[in-house]
Specification:
heterodimer, A: 102 residues, mainly alpha, 4 helices, flat, B: mainly alpha, 12 helices, 81% helix, globular
Chain lengths: 102, 242
Amino acid sequence: MEHNVYVYILIMFGVAYLLRTLPLTLIRGEIKNRRIKSFLYYVPYVTLAVMTFPAILYASASPIPGLVALLIGMVVAWKGGGLFPTAIVCALAVFLVDFIAK
Amino acid sequence: MKEQNRYWFKKGLKDGVPIAAGYFAVSFALGITAKNAGLTAFQATLASLLCNASAGEYAGFAVIAENASYVTMALVTAIISARYMLMSIALSQKLPQQVGLGHRLLVGFWITDEIFGASSTVPGKLNPRYNYGLAICSLTFWALGTCLGVVVGNILPGNIVNALSVLLYGMFLAIIMPESRKNKVVLGLVIISMLMSLAFAYLPWIKTLSEGTRIIILTVLIAGAGAIFFPIPDEDEKVEDN
């Protein structure tokens, strides 16, 4: 059977929107439980670390430029580089290593 | 209060610039995928405006390309977007309690990995206008990039696209590292996260799980272990609530 693209898009939107808004609208009070609070505190760092590595290695045909970008980005960010400078340094690293490798 | 709102909205617009640059590159590639799946520029742009999700949209376009069932689409979206639910729970604690339903629906609509990451670095409570600034600045380019990806396809040279695609990871590092420096438990969890993520990408059977599923499993396991073995002291929380 042929499916309608707009229905597909509506399903993608609807399911993701429910997941995104239900907790925000249903949980109004402050969570007191120390374990849950700790869990929520750790979530962003764990999620972002999981998403960054090893995915950054696939940025280019070879894993080397991504690895260089990861190491340089970690140092710059550790020293307090901030969002934009760290992002730019990583992109430049990939571009230059890609360029040298050719 | 008005002053405060304007301040946070403007700060969001400014902090959204690197996110916008990264989004533009990533969504450009996404647009090419959409085109290959048979979507028009209008359909792909509409999907980006409504869904605001990189991995979710990639997977969705793959479902469309396969002409799979609507139920499959719902399941795939739910699995890949489940992490947004964790982020939504976290933000429910970050917003002041008196923030109304309208704001909550809008903040939820614009939860992405990057906007969540940036808004969780705000000390103390979160003004929803910060999220709006971030979202309006960055997601405009998300939609624009998707549209251009469909229309002009492979016009950018590959090495430029490669370099741009790393912008997002650089931003992630800028969010992770300062906290890792301050808190040794976070540092340990970050290192474990990266190592386990690497293992999950190559282990037999596990590697066949979708990326979204692997992210959920690892997040729950590692953040859960952190919470059980290293719960944060209560004093820190009082400082954060100020």
